[in-house]
Amino acid sequence: MSKKVKKTDDLSEPVDIRSSSGGGWLYSDVVKDHFFNPRNFMQYDEEEKFEYNGMGRVGSPACGDEMVMWLKINPQTEKITDCRWRTFGCGSAIASTSVLSEMLVEKGGMPIDEALKLKPQDILARLGGLPDRKVHCSVLGDKALQAAVNDYFRRTGQHARVLTAGAKVIDAALNVTDKDIEEAVLEGARVLEDVQKKLKVGVFNKESVPQIEELLRFYTEKYYG
Length: 225
Description:
There is one protein chain. Helix content is 38%, strand content 18%. It folds into two domains: 29-158, Sufe protein. Chain: A (Alpha-Beta Complex); 164-224, BFD-like [2Fe-2S]-binding domain (Arc Repressor Mutant, subunit A), CATH 1.10.10.1100. It has helices at 29-36, 91-105, 112-115, 120-127, 138-155, 178-186, 192-199, 209-224; strands at residues 14-18, 24-28, 54-60, 65-73, 80-88, 169-171, 176-177. Strand 1 and strand 2 form a beta hairpin. By secondary structure, the chain is α+β, with helices and mostly antiparallel strands. Helix 1 (29-36) crosses helix 2 (91-105) and helix 2 (91-105) packs across helix 4 (120-127). The longest helix has 18 residues, at 138-155. The radius of gyration is 19 Å and the shape is globular.
């Protein structure tokens, strides 16, 4: 793929990145900068040393796109004081998540309630836009952020604050959804005990166990055959 055909010092001015077929998409220099120099990217040798209290994983490497986000949240102020991420995705997904991570930690850290109100449009505005066919890439980081904040709520016993929009609730007391079971399988859960260790689901609400086991079988078959 041939790349930049125009140099500019104006970060808001788009550049043309063309495919070998001659087609082109317009990317701002901000997108290009975050793609080639991603901020807050989690290196593999940093993962064990990074102290976090919220981690979210969305997507699947088998499907081509996966995002993992780690957050360090101050329990007193509930501000995001540090953020790391890693993705298997396209350049637009990398740039979108890089700029999102910057937004989360700048100015002393964004409160989690404010962070959860961020929209893909906010990320696009900061990037100077994306081609229409790439706008969906800005959503991956947003979903990982929500998953990481939900993980923080569970770790701190704030189950009533867990966000469950667009998902089927499996355990109402803990606000555990089918999407949480899916993510647990993607992280290696294969039996009920694995899921309970991570989510505590079905420990007190025994009636949910058959549904949990059914979802375990379904997602294990879906991703691993």
